[in-house]
Amino acid sequence: MRMEKLYINGQWKDAASGESFDVLNPADGSLVGKMAAAGKEEVLEAIDAADQTFEEWSNLPAHVR
């Protein structure tokens, strides 16, 4: 089964830890996929990317966003 990566700062990345978690169908509990488990390193990277982009993005009109 394919493991989905994390999307951070415009790039698809594996979790630095290599850890993942199962994504389950809530109706029957069957496995529908796996997702890379973001850790502290990935969270800080995502926050930094959002912080760097926020000012430019927030100045765009809604129809452009």
Automatic annotation (TrEMBL):
Pfam (any one): Aldedh
Keywords in alphabetical order: Oxidoreductase
InterPro entries: Ald_DH/histidinol_DH, Ald_DH_N, Aldehyde_DH_dom, Aldehyde_DH_Superfamily
SUPFAM superfamilies (UniProt xref): ALDH-like
Record-annotated Aldehyde dehydrogenase domain positions: 12-65
GO molecular function: oxidoreductase activity, acting on the aldehyde or oxo group of donors, NAD or NADP as acceptor
Matching PANTHER family: SUCCINATE-SEMIALDEHYDE DEHYDROGENASE, MITOCHONDRIAL (PTHR43353)
Full protein name: Succinate-semialdehyde dehydrogenase / glutarate-semialdehyde dehydrogenase
Protein source organism: Tindallia californiensis
UniProt lineage: Bacteria, Bacillati, Bacillota, Clostridia, Peptostreptococcales
